Amino acid sequence: xxxxxxxxxxxxxxxxxxxKIECRSLDFQATTMFWYRQFPKQSLxxxxxxxxxxxxxxxxxxxxxxxxxxxxxxxxxxLTVTSAHPEDSSFYICSASPGxxxxxxxxxxxxxxxxx
Amino acid sequence: xxxxxxxxxxQHVQEGEDFTTYCNSSTTLSNIQWYKQxxxxxxxxxxxxxxxGEVKKQKRLTFQFGEAKKNSSLHITATQxxxxxxxxxxxxxxxxxxxxxxxxxxxxxP
Lengths: 116, 110
Fold this sequence. Notes:
The structure holds two protein chains of two kinds.
Chain A: E1 4-7, E2 10-13, E3 19-25, E4 32-38, E5 44-51, E6 57-58, E7 67-73, E8 76-81, E9 90-96, E10 106-107, E11 111-115
Parallel strand pairs in A: 2-11
Antiparallel strand pairs in A: 1-3, 3-8, 4-5, 4-9, 5-6, 7-8, 9-10, 9-11
Chain B: E1 4-7, E2 10-14, E3 19-25, E4 31-37, E5 44-49, E6 55-58, E7 61-65, E8 71-76, E9 85-92, E10 98-100, E11 104-109
Parallel strand pairs in B: 2-11
Antiparallel strand pairs in B: 1-3, 3-8, 4-5, 4-9, 6-7, 7-8, 9-10, 9-11
């Protein structure tokens, strides 16, 4: 199957700093990627849809100025958590599909962010 | 809003017993997908159902999509320790994105 790589797999940062997470589709091009957030033992909550060459589409309640998304190429989307605070600590995970977005989604390994 | 609920939230079964998780949507779905997430891992695609009343099988796993395309189920026959994990359904409401269900965490008692 297709491969989506996410980096870093975990990160610890100080409160007030920014953290960038990368999501790459290794063997296919993805005009659309998705960013999710998952709290322990909970479901995946869609944060935003990353669109190559255009602005991301954020879900209701997600602050676009806090969670900056850049999708500059067909194989790379980045999520930057700006001015991170302890409540931003979570598991962030991206996904992409080789075909239409409503088909099988391939997920990155996820990034566990801890803000201290 | 568009929601996808799953029951049960947790299921503990003896190895060899069957397991079923149910998924219900507030509105009609374009399609539904099922994913498995192992502890500490990421979701892995299992199957996609598109047609009303569709039934698909993968070895010990049987997936069903309701006639009204608002509910779905995953049934595992004779569970094994490798089946441990959280099973999520994910619905597409025709808006080209997935809404994940609340998930069912399966644990196996050897």
